[in-house]
Amino acid sequence: MTLKAYNSLTRQKEEFVPLQEGWVGMYVCGPTVYEDAHLGHAKTYVNFDTIVRYLRYLGYRVRYVQNITDVGHLLDSGEDRILKGAARERVEPMELVETYTRRYFEDMDALNVLRPDISPRASGHIPEQIELIKVLIEKGYAYEVNGSVYFDVAKWPEYGKLSGRRVDELIEGARVEVNPEKRHPADFALWKRAEPEHIMRWQSPWGWGFPGWHVECSVMSTKYLGQPFDIHGGGMENKFPHHDCEIAQSEAAAGVPFCRYWLHNGMLMVRGDEMHKSLGNFVTLREAFEHYSPLVIRFFVLGGHYRSPLDFGDTALQAASKGLERLYGAVQAVRERLSGACPEQCPDGSTGSPRGLVEGRSRRAESGDLDEAFAATLAEHKRRFLEGMDDDFNTAAAIGVLFDLNKEVNTLLDSGQEISRETLVAINDLYGELGGDILGVIPGEIAKEAAGLEEPLIEFLIETRQRLREAQEWRWADEIRGRMAELGIALEDRPEGTRWRLTKSV
Question: What is the mean pLDDT of residues 332-339?
């Protein structure tokens, strides 16, 4: 099966074929860094991170560009978000930007979101934005009024082709700024005149001012990816007006298509409403991390299709936590058996630790002693997993396959039969390949620290409980198990001994 992606521009699934064989240029609209990132950002950037991971897994060299908006993104009131944030915290605008840019990347790191290859800032590309605006004026697609410059949508008949909006259906005051300077209510700002008190401003052919929000993405995407490029991603809410404006100004200026595949991410919902800072119904990632592991949040996001809305709530996150716990239980059991099977040095030269087992993946894959029956089972699960991902990056289907694999693995582990080292290695490798490399939810080492407790203390409690059980002090043994569960430590009694894993902080 070949990779197919739903293209918002054509409104259908299409086989993905990049412009250059083996190379993909991908741009995703990044955050406006005036406050901490929230769970809605997690949905967007986890989803697109997984798309990038999968493209690289398929062998493509991907250049992933995600901008940082640090100027020009205006509120409905006309205030610049950065200036409002700077006034709120009584700092310089660029000081605010530096703070929240760093915090954004720290939050993404916690979610195991890979850093973009290029993270350009709008304020660092003002000259290029001015040049694009000059071209649009020269070609008759833009006009200047009192130091501001607007794109003339009437001159571009295809305006709205992505969202399906028609210019003649747009009425003044309906999701467009009411401004007497504009020839048409849908005309959008390319450059805004800065009043004397406006801190963030630059000199231009039209006087002191600052760029409009839309123009930055046109400039930064094509600067680093060329025009046209392969994939443009962003939230569903950005189709209109942001992405429609990007297409219009880019194609009017260059005379060629802007982007070939448009991928749009569904919104995070809270009790039926979209999660938005303007609605006050958002939860910052840092607040969420106080209650849930970042990888639980990542797993929660990937449990739905990227194009579909996702309902946020404690019940959903608790279910994701339990689901990830089940996956980790099987993975950890396999790794523990492997460590026990070769505690010092494995014949292939890799160490027996979980990290060594993961790092030695390529060397061990050549082993020819794998049990044929389970090899076929693993191959079938891998085929189904990739089939799901090839169908428009369907992570929900892929996770379903991982749970099916878990059942097979647990059945094998509980069967009592001797399992060859090669079979255990192959299972561990498949978990690392599908759940780690592609989905980013299964790390090389599963964390074993919780609630400030050290591993030796946890092992001591397990030993104490075992002694109580041997003495038939069932009530006290159960008390220890219950209290450990409250601390986020789950115990599993198996024939080979008691294993533990984390539930609140994996």
Answer: 89
**Residue among 96, 74, 93 at smallest CA distance from 212:** 74
Cα-based distances in Å from 76 to 126, 267, 355 = 23, 20, 50
**How far apart, in whole angstroms, are the C-alpha atoms of residue 237 and residue 40?**
12
For 201, list phi and psi in degrees, rounded to 5: -155, 155
Tokens found for residue 454: 């050290």
Check if the beta carbon of residue 112 is closer than 8 Å to that of residue 203: no
pLDDT in tens, 17-44: 999 999 999 999 999 898 899 999 999 9
What structural domains does the chain harbor?
Answer: 4-311 (3.40.50.620), 323-438 (no CATH), 455-502 (no CATH)
Percent of the chain with pLDDT over 90: 62
pLDDT given at position 278: 59
Overall pTM surpassing 0.70 (yes/no): yes
Residue 96 backbone zone (phi > 0: left; psi -120 to 50: alpha; other: beta): alpha
Q: Which two tokens stand for residue 15?
A: 């086989």
pLDDT at 271 over 90: no
pLDDT of residue 192: 93
DSSP states along 432-490:
IIIIIIITS-S-SS----BTTB-HHHHHHHHHHHHHHHHTT-HHHHHHHHHHHHHTTEE
User: Hey, which residues does 489 pair with through a beta bridge?
Assistant: 502
Rounded to a whole number, what is the largest CA-CA distance in the chain? Answer: 90
